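Students often ask what a holo structure prediction actually looks like on paper. The answer is less mysterious than it sounds. You provide the chain, you provide the ligand, and the output is a string of discrete structure tokens encoding the 3D arrangement of the protein together with adenosine-5'-diphosphate.
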Amino acid sequence: MKRAIYPGSFDPVTFGHLDIIRRSAGLCDHLIVAVLNNNNKTPLFSVDERVEMLKEATKDLANVEVASFSGLLVDFAKKNDVGVIIRGLRAVTDYEYELAMSQTNRVANPNIDTIFLNTSLEYAYLSSSIVREMAMYGGDITKFVPNCVVDKVYKKFKK
Ligand code: ADP
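The corresponding structure tokens follow.
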């Protein structure tokens, strides 16, 4: 596995994402963490903010690059000479959507495969939306996101 891509919204990056990043960076030569610029969603953080937070949180990982993309993932992967997509699976509820996505991507480009890493048990419940909801009501999010992200999330809800 030479070059792989780990796409997502990362709004914001959580310890669950970082666990998948760390583990997949150990499996490939070069990992591109790709932040989706999705026009249909109204995110809490801009794409640039999400990229910055990911860069800060992964700065100790030499073979990890952070980028953003819009449009089709398979097109972005092909342009970057990537043959493997990494996705994380938390529970069976993730499975149906992820299966359909990976099959769609294979129809779109049969040279690109998706590999699923299952979540580490301690992060099985964790999602960016849980973090946003906890922060909105003033809950403690230090167990969910890295230090460099904590205040940035609270700040969004202070306005
Ligand atoms: P998306 O909007 O594409 O689902 P997310 O940022 O929510 O983007 O997630 C990106 C990827 O990380 C997805 O494959 C998702 O299943 C995975 N993921 C999210 N949270 C966790 C977690 N706690 N443990 C393992 N994988 C996770």
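Residues 8-10, 14, 16-17, 20, 87-88, 90, 94, 119, 123, 126-128 surround adenosine-5'-diphosphate (CB under 6 Å).
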